[in-house]
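tool=predict chain=A
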Amino acid sequence: MYPEGSMYNFKPQYRVALRGEALLTSSRFNKGTAFTLAERKNFGLGGRLPCQVNTLDDQCKRAYAQFQTCETPIRKNSFLQSLKDQNWVLYYSLISRHLREMVPIIYTPTEAEAISEYSHLFRRSEGLYLTLKDQDSMEEDFLEQTKGRDFDLIVCSDAEAILGIGDQGVGGIGISTAKSAIYTLIGGMDPSKSLSVTLDVGTDNADLLNDDLYVGWNHERVRGEEYDQFLDKFVQLVRKYFPGSLLHFEDFGVTNAQRLLQKYRTTHSVFNDDIQGTGAVTLACIMAAVGVTKSKLSDQRYIIFGAGSAGMGIAHQLRDAIVQINDFNESQANKLFYVIDKDGLITEELVITTSVRPELHPFARPNSEWHGIQRDEDGKICLLEVVKHVKPTVLIGCSTLAGAFTEDVVKAMAAGCERPIILPLSNPSKLVEVNPEDANDWTRGKALLATGSPFPPAKMANGKDYIIAECNNALIYPGLGFGTILTQSRHMTDSMIIAGARRLASLSPALSDPDDALLPDFVDAPQVNFEVGIAVAEQAIAEGTARVNWLQEQVRHEASKKVWKPIYREYVYDEQGNR
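tool=predict ok
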């Protein structure tokens, strides 16, 4: 069910300036066999289409049958990409009818394979390619390719850390376009108002550099000041020509992700899904869990296992929520966290003796806490010892270290609290820190569980299925973006993100039944994200970052009008119309 008053519920006329071949080859405006007889006559399509006029339902039925003939996920991905190149409305309508089945095809995990094979699968361009070696013409190229367009959303990637497969060079355009598609499918964004960008700064992927068919810049990845100048030139173009847009950073490497976010978030509306999206959906999941346990965020003891962009994004998001909601100061909130990375528990000693990244420093534990604690042969304080010593209530895995949450670790945690909250979030599923079924068994059904990939239900002691929540960023990031864009907010603030997370948490099935999933089902993602967007927009208005002059009470009505849905509009020919 879509919001009252959304574009799903009415079919306005649309003035279009294209005719004949130009209209049939426009993915934005093409209807294929759904052009009415009147449209075929008025737009010079007589003799160009079979005589039968189909409905969108007919076309989706045919396209789904074609999709099912594709034998492998990558072939299904290629089929859907081809459909998108031909007809946006049909593409989005088809996928919206089969979200659970098709999102893993156009996004993780299948899109990772498509990105890794990008140069061999390449057929046509699908966004804006900006290359460091051509930066002297960047503004000219940017203006030429965005001429006459008004963008609400710009998704960019430098492809250093793609979907768990690392540096993919120019193939990063694939993750930018996939993220943009999710914004449309689940967040209601108009696809004509989103721009996907790859920032080609070279690659350190030897397989790509040695591939004769590689279509990107065959150069080692540029870093340092030259990289920063290139990125800044791009960001300033976005600020200059699309000042009201949301700039989404995706899959930047760990050395750049956090610092670029901090550098630009006070001057433009920017968002990093790997940091803020992962943090926000995890925050919502834990808010739901503490709702089940009738406790507070500030009552918990948190272990973050894996201190990359995702792990630290979660730590910062949780810390900021504790400060805002539970009236802690930042120093007090930091003391609730125990961060473990490849060097073991992050302590003050490690900060002094190793190259621990600056964003980890506030979470370093005092050396005095760990006198007499057993260390491994390399002198590290490892996970099991931290669990025994700390008795955590929340254990979060972002390490991609499969099986790290061993039976000993899980049982030690369960011995220290009544309802352990265990979130093995690493993707893909083969890299998960613990199979949730094992964690459920080892805790005798006491654990509150969520994972980063879909898993089948676990069995409770009473024989009932325990639904494993999927802590999927797509449950929140499209809504965060939608609310920000809706209000033309100057920034996406921490309090806006927390407002979105609180709204998502309030929709948790577990709040009605403690044995149900901690987060809503993914098939409900469009409705969930609409509610998240409402909360974000209301917060933007409340704190004065919004550029619109609405009251909070007006947000739901305005949001309903903004939602884009894949339907065919009636076309009227107009030489001055849309192209």
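Residues 452 and 472 are 6 Å apart (CA to CA). Residues 4-10 have pLDDT under 50 and may be disordered.
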